[in-house]
Design brief:
Helix content is 47%, strand content 13%. It is of the alpha+beta class. It is globular and about 50 Å long.
Length: 304
C-alpha cells in the first residue's frame, strides 16, 4: 500500500482507460484530483500532525487477527486538514465541470460551517452523517458526494495508518471487514499468480486474503446463494453478490491483465462504476455503504 497511491497512479489511470471503455471521459478529472492531493501532501506532509492512536501490542494485535477481530482504528480527524483537502478537491471538480460550480460552492460553504462547529477534531461517523445530510439538503448527487468525501477521507487515513497496515498480521485474518479500521470493503481483486481473492479497504487501503466462496458482509458460504456477473464483453471486473444479504462487492480479476501488488484498486473502482449500476439493476446494494449510483441513473437505465 502506497500512501495516497502516490506511486504509479498515473500509469494505473492510463491502463484503466484501455481496460474500461467508458473511463476515458472522466480520466482527466480523476488524474487532476490525484495530482492536486499529491502536491498538497508533498508540500505540507512534514508539517501535518499524526492522529492520536491507541494501538494494541503486537501480540494482542496478532491474537485479534486470529479471532477475526478488527482493530477498529478510526481516529478522529483534524478539521482544518479535512477542510483544506476538501476545498482542494472541490476546486478541481468545478474546473472539470463548471456547470455544477454553484452546487459545489454551496457544499463547500456548508462543509466549512459544519467543521467549524465541530472544533479541532471530528469523528468519521459525524463526517459520514454530514455527507448524507448534504445529499438530502443540496443539489449534489450521490456519486459526486461519495467521491468527494471518500477521496479526502481515504487520503487522510491511508497516510496516517500506513505504518500500522504494513506490519499488521493480516495473514492470520479471515474476516470480512477491514482488519485495521473496521470499514466494509467495496472492492478487491483476484491475484494474478494463484487467483486468491484479496479484499481492500476503501478507507485505509489495508488488504487481506478472503475466502472466495464467502460473503464478506454476512459470512454466508452457501454456493447456491453466492455468485458473480460481469458487463458483457468485459470480464475484468466481477460483481460478486450474495442473495442472502443482497449486497455486492466488485472484484478486479488481475489475471486478465497479468498484474499483482501494484494494482491501484481505488482507480479501478472509479473506472468501473457501470458495474455498480448493473449491480443495482439486479437488486443488489453496496456492502460498503458507498453509494455510487444516482436515482436518475437507475431511471435512465430502466428506460433503456
Amino acid at each position: 500500500m502506497d500512501s495516497l497511491w502516490m506511486t504509479g497512479y498515473e500509469k494505473e489511470i492510463e491502463r484503466c482507460k484501455k481496460l474500461y471503455v467508458n473511463f476515458s471521459e472522466g480520466a482527466g478529472y480523476i488524474k487532476a484530483v490525484f495530482d492536486a492531493l499529491k502536491k498538497y501532501y508533498e508540500k505540507h506532509g512534514n508539517q501535518l500532525s499524526q492522529l492520536e492512536l491507541t494501538i494494541p501490542s503486537a501480540e494482542e494485535s496478532a491474537e485479534m487477527m486470529r479471532q477475526d477481530e478488527s482493530l477498529n482504528l478510526r481516529p478522529d480527524i483534524n478539521t482544518a486538514l479535512f477542510s483544506e483537502l476538501f476545498k482542494l478537491v472541490c476546486l478541481e471538480t468545478t474546473k472539470a465541470n463548471p456547470v455544477i460550480k454553484e452546487t459545489i460552492a454551496t457544499v463547500v460553504d456548508k462543509t466549512i460551517t459544519f467543521l467549524s462547529e465541530e472544533g479541532e477534531i471530528v469523528s468519521l461517523e459525524k463526517i459520514k452523517a454530514f455527507r448524507d445530510l448534504l445529499i438530502k439538503e443540496t443539489a449534489i448527487e450521490k456519486d459526486m458526494a461519495t467521491f468527494l468525501f471518500s477521496i479526502v477521507l481515504s487520503s487522510i487515513y491511508r497516510r496516517q495508518l500506513e505504518t500500522i497496515s504494513k506490519v499488521l498480521r493480516t495473514d492470520l485474518y479471515e474476516g470480512g471487514e477491514c482488519p485495521l479500521c473496521g470499514e466494509k470493503p467495496h472492492y478487491g481483486m483476484l491475484r494474478n499468480d494463484d487467483g486468491a481473492k484479496h479484499l481492500e479497504c476503501w478507507l485505509c487501503g489495508t488488504s487481506w486474503v478472503h475466502t472466495r466462496v464467502k460473503c464478506p458482509y454476512c459470512s454466508n458460504d452457501d454456493r447456491e446463494e453466492l455468485g458473480y456477473f460481469t458487463v458483457e464483453g468485459n470480464d475484468i471486473c466481477r460483481v460478486n453478490y450474495c442473495r442472502n444479504c443482497c449486497r455486492y462487492c466488485k472484484i478486479i480479476d488481475a489475471r486478465k491483465f497479468g498484474m499483482d501488488g501494484k494494482v491501484i484498486l481505488a482507480i479501478h473502482n472509479l473506472a468501473s462504476l457501470e458495474y455498480d449500476l448493473l449491480a443495482r439493476k439486479e437488486g443488489f446494494f453496496p456492502g460498503s455503504g458507498l453509494e455510487w449510483i444516482n436515482e436518475e441513473d437507475e431511471a435512465i437505465d430502466r428506460q433503456d
